């Protein structure tokens, strides 16, 4: 009979092996302390690097969702509801990541989401991101809340960026902004419609209160970002932005105002996708603002299918929200997205390493997508169809 100390130890180890406690312990992987972007293994490694260099107020603003951050979490959790269905014995010796949107060939389906105020993360802000996007041939969407001017970003990018519109409350302001963006030649205007009702950035506010510096000494938009006219793209435009009275009539007016391609960002339902198509938009970005708009929403990956069905292939549907892995991107493509945007990951990398960090993020995600395509037997983007995921 074996009941000595060894037996007890074996019994205890056996208990641990089946225990969720041990599984959790295994998940506590050693955090990498990056000293250069090349040391990053995956996108998430940049999160800690950014946290170490950013002041608490800036970190909190970037990391924040709204209320209890439930939509923020749902964006990540959503991917768990879709599993891959890989096919075998397909020649995957050559993988073609190119895709086409609005008659332009993209090197990969990845794009850089509009993120406001990037000089709060790195002194070169949007210009550093533009240089990275140019080096990696990625599409950059510039925010209306940019801390760099669209003219400077166009120079650094070597081509005009797509431009994200926060609509000024006064129509003359919208006209002025759109004309300025047309003048640099931006091909696509992306109107963000998910912040028209306001929001509660609670986590940001908690972090801000731990920050003892005088933010107002550095930037006029400190303390809630109310000094909108201090933003480089809003100079000469007063009255604020994101009119809560906006309806589909505003979209019709915008449609008439410009010949730029018009994309709506922040659509999450089939009903709105149908209306968007009926009102003549050229594309949709399924987005919940990275969990920074409406609380207790679905992860965007879960909303994607109904939007794709509703537009019936007539206009491209793009998506963002929680994309961190090549498998995440693959799932969205399988569910019908034509392009996938990342927000925070490139901001983490920008914060810690500037342009080189952003380049590394694009390289890693591209390599992961390529690997997933090999593993699933999909040599090109058009091979990635709904049969490669199960819900
Ligand atoms: C700090 C921060 C600022 C943002 N600023 C804007 C903005 O100015 N305009 C906009 O349309 N979306 C903005 N977004 C939302 C992003 O475009 C995108 O929808 C979101 O970040 C994608 O989710 P992810 O961060 O999980 O990748 C911002 C997001 C963050 C994190």
Q: What does the model show?
A:
The structure is a single chain. The protein has 391 residues and is α/β, with parallel strands linked by helices. The chain contains 14 helices and 12 strands. The strands form 3 sheets. An 8-stranded parallel beta barrel has the order 4-5-6-7-8-9-10-11, surrounded by 7 helices. The chain has a two-stranded antiparallel sheet with strand order 1-12. α13 links the parallel β10 (317-320) and β11 (339-342). α3 packs antiparallel against α14, α6 packs parallel to α7 (150-157) and α13 packs across α14 (344-376). The termini are far apart. Flavin mononucleotide binds at residues 61-62, 75, 113-116, 143, 145, 164, 192, 265, 287, 289-290, 292, 320-323, 342-344.
**DSSP helical segment count:** 14
Largest beta-sheet characterization: 8 strands, parallel, barrel
Poorly predicted sequence stretches spanning 5 or more consecutive residues: none
Percentage of residues in DSSP E strands: 5-15%
Mean of residue pLDDT values = 93
Beta-strand segment tally: 12
Shape descriptor reads: globular
Give a topology summary:
Elements lengths: L4 H13 L2 H8 L17 H9 L2 H8 L6 H8 L5 E2 L14 E3 L2 E3 L3 E3 L12 H12 L2 E4 L7 H8 L4 E4 L5 H14 L3 E5 L9 H9 L37 H10 L3 E7 L2 H9 L4 E4 L13 H12 L5 E4 L5 H9 L4 E4 L1 H33 L12 E2 L1
Parallel strand pairs: 4-5, 4-11, 5-6, 6-7, 7-8, 8-9, 9-10, 10-11
Antiparallel strand pairs: 1-12, 2-3
Helix pairs in contact: 3-14, 4-9, 6-7, 6-14, 11-12, 13-14
